[in-house]
């Protein structure tokens, strides 16, 4: 395992609980949240290490005073990497919404998390595991879900199953003495979305002559606000606790209007009926069966976007001082970044 000028997504934080974090290790540091975490941490004068896979591009870390280590979380010895750190933020994951390739999701999401949790326990290092709101029970705007309710009627995906199993692996290590916290981010938007990931929604909605929104809703949050919440959890959350880090509850139609306004487009929006979305999802399944690759629009993703997908961040507001900004700010900041970096 050679040390290089950049790792894939692991920040090693020196973060004693109830004290200011001074050194971080972050996994997933080239993704939207991980990259934002690195930048927010460096902006606070913290030291950061990014743990990257061998093939991960380093462009998202160019110009940053971050130490980079390349390693295989599923195969390399991890205790030497985390020894001496105070906190590891595990933000790296395989993300896609569908039902196929569950074993591949387990290899990428469960195995590395379990190994990293065991290494942190052995080294006496705090772990902040970045999970997803998809492992929790969703609610409506009037009655949002929270950290206390497990996923129930929500459509199961390979991603959500693997993240739930990864949470179980972390909690099993907590029972053995690991100091760990689990966070559940909402729908992230903002600058530094290099791939792009969730920001593809902004690009697609802004580029279209008109936008056809699905009938459900989601909680849209600024990646910088979520990153600050993660850092606060690293510094002062009680071991074994979990926090929703969500944002403004909007229907997709409302969100699409805000996106088009942020991009200077006319608000040509219509809401698709649930039956049409479901039919499109089934068509996606057929395309995937023929091509061998599951498309982004499939029956699982179609079922999800037809539902309300709302959770409360009240616990994080109380314990961590979490204060998400309006979704339109995240959309505007993301669009400005995309246009400035040649994506739009």
TrEMBL record:
Membrane-spanning parts? none
- CC per GO annotation: cytoplasm
Molecular function terms in GO for this entry? aldehyde dehydrogenase (NAD+) activity
The UniProt record lists the NAD-dependent epimerase/dehydratase domain at 25-243
Which PANTHER family does the record match to this protein? NAD(P)-BINDING DOMAIN-CONTAINING PROTEIN-RELATED, PROTEIN YEEZ
Protein name in the entry: NAD-dependent epimerase/dehydratase family protein
């Amino acid at each position: 395992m050679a040390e290089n000028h950049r790792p894939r997504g692991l920040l090693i934080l020196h973060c004693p609980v109830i004290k200011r974090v001074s050194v971080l290790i972050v996994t997933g540091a080239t993704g939207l949240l991980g990259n934002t975490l690195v930048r927010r941490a460096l902006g606070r004068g913290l030291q950061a290490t990014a743990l990257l896979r061998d093939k991960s591009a380093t462009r998202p870390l160019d110009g940053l005073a971050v130490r980079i280590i390349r390693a295989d979380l599923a195969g390399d010895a991890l205790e030497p990497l985390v020894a001496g750190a105070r906190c590891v933020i595990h933000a790296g994951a395989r993300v896609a919404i569908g039902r196929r390739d569950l074993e591949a999701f387990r290899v990428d999401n469960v195995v590395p998390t379990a190994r990293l949790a065991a290494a942190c326990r052995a080294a006496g290092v705090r772990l902040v595991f970045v999970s997803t709101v998809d492992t929790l029970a969703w609610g409506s705007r009037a009655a949002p879900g929270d950290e206390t309710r497990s996923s129930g009627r929500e459509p199961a995906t390979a991603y959500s199953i693997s993240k739930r199993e990864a949470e179980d692996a972390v909690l099993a290590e907590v029972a053995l003495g690991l100091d760990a916290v689990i966070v559940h981010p909402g729908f992230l938007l903002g600058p530094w979305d290099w791939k792009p990931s969730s920001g593809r929604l902004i690009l697609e909605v802004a580029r279209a002559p008109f936008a056809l929104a699905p009938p459900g809703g989601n909680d849209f949050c600024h990646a910088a606000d979520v990153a600050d919440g993660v850092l606060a959890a690293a510094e002062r959350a009680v071991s074994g606790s979990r926090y929703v880090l969500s944002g403004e509850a909007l229907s997709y139609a409302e969100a699409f209007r805000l996106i088009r306004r942020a991009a200077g487009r006319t608000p040509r929006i219509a809401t698709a009926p649930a039956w049409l979305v479901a039919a499109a999802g089934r068509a996606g399944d057929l395309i995937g069966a023929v091509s061998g690759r599951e498309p982004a629009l499939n029956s699982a993703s179609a079922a999800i976007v037809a539902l309300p997908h709302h959770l409360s961040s009240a616990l994080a507001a109380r314990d961590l001082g979490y204060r998400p900004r309006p979704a339109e700010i995240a959309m505007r900041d993301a669009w400005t970044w995309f246009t400035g970096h040649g994506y739009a």
